[in-house]
Sequence to fold (197 residues):
Amino acid sequence: MILIALAAAVTTTSAQQTKPPTDVGSAAPPGTVPVGKELDVRLQSSLNSGSAKNEQRFEATTVADATQAGNVLIPAGSVVRGVVSDVKAAGRVDRTGSMKLNFDRITINGQPHEIRAMATQVFQSGGLRDDKGTAGTGASIGGVIGGLAGGVSGALLGAAIGAGGAVASTEGKDIDLAAGTVIRIRFDSPLNLGGGR
Fold:
């Protein structure tokens, strides 16, 4: 596991303040985000293993356009719905707080689409020009779409991401993800959008 730190305060940015669009690649069928591709989303509210509940819903927004052959498949600012599961608060015996983050829906131009995705990396974010630090499952930067590839640096301390999108504290306390934290998610099922917009 690679370690990261999560600051108590994170500066959020507007959906319009994004990096240039990233192409999903021509290997996938037209209008399809294939399995294994990754997308960066920004938390709209904080999550903490000490207060979160199993099956709690939360929302994040995409930080950049995802395109294919020049067509926008997923515009920046699209809302992604996440679900917290397997929450474990830090206790006297097991002092490590953790929670699993999965994602089951994305709304694009007002239309909801079911997805299956999980967290693979987490970034402390002070804005797209100042994103730094990551923990993850070793996913390739080449597989990232609509993301912050090249905008991160350094290994940080404080949390670790395990199998299945589980985010765990490494400091004997609850894990805290502030609003504005950027989460890299990986699609575990294809997303067929029927062509770009």
